[in-house]
């Protein structure tokens, strides 16, 4: 909220007033001591000169002021690729508390992404600040997802995959726009981009994508495209995909088995629980066994499996997978998960605070308030951030 000073700015919160004219007029930092308001600086985003628009984006990004997300959103669909890329980067900065791990880039445009892409997204979700994502940004990302420049599309996909799972927890028109734009990207010539699009559809859990993803899986059967389509289907977990998932439980590929288990769990297919538990007796893949613990909780409300998942937070090799499962379970199991805010491991306490902060369940706020007094400063900070997110 802005204060009522003459500039209309909350200096204590974001320190935005600058002794510069260079945003609007391109002057040097030392040339003036005149102060400008947020609205005046934001007006630089509409300037006909692309360099001025770029400078305005940089200043708004550096100010880290939440209200800047809306005016910058318009620049995400700018006609100049440089402005678009800067705007996407600025929006990422406005919504993340720390650097989100980026995937390895190939050549000029795209990035390597394994079939575990959704796990990286879960880790990235924990970096989100306690800020509401405006619908204007989601709509602009949908435009950028259809841009002629593959690099713009790639960056838009990255940001959509980061923001949409949280922002689209409730159905909205801008979220449908993103989902439809991602479906359009499934047939791209750039292989990595179409795979990222399929994975992102799973993270968004966009039900209208089921047919397109099923067609891709049926066509490819094996290989990276098939796995990306399967990951998307597993993320959505639609009941009509149950036959696909059941047919893959005995597949030789551990990732295929893991996605099959996840898909059955998210589809709410309780009839599969007994078969999954039987398969667990002979399963040797740790990643598939973790998925089975997730399914046990999702389908059978098994407390022992929930505790096993929380324990996995203290294991770096399992952490990214476990985060995704617990984030999904948090809305129904927030209170039970919050019991681990007293775990001996500070890493577990910190991650549990992060997780329940996405639960939308205010019942965990008292436990989080106690955790704000944790002896570990990172745990205390995570608990405070979680409280702020729950109060959005």
Q: How many distinct beta strands?
A: 2
Tally of individual helices: 22
Gyration radius, rounded: 22 Å
Mean pLDDT: 86
Dominant shape? flat
The secondary-structure element order is HHHHHHEEHHHHHHHHHHHHHHHH
Assembly state of the chains shown:
single chain
Largest sheet: 2 strands, antiparallel
Low-confidence stretches: 1-34, 99-117
Q: How do the strands line up in the largest sheet?
A: 1-2
Structural class: mainly alpha
Strand content: under 5%
The CA-CA distance between the termini, in Å, is: 13 Å
**Helical content class:** 55-70%
State the main characteristics.
392 residues; Leucine-rich Repeat Variant
In short:
With about 400 residues, the protein is an all-alpha fold. The chain contains 22 helices and 2 strands.
Structural notes for this entry:
The two termini are 13 Å apart. By secondary structure, the protein is mainly α. It has helices spanning 11-14, 22-25, 38-42, 50-63, 69-75, 81-95, 117-125, 135-144, 150-167, 173-184, 191-204, 210-220, 223-236, 242-247, 254-266, 273-279, 286-300, 303-312, 319-338, 346-356, 365-371, 377-390, and strands spanning 105-106, 110-111. Helices cover 61% and strands 1% of the residues. A hairpin with a 3-residue loop joins strand 1 (105-106) and strand 2 (110-111). Among the domains are: 1-94, no CATH class; 96-205, no CATH class; 327-392, Leucine-rich Repeat Variant (Alpha Horseshoe), CATH 1.25.10. The protein is flat.
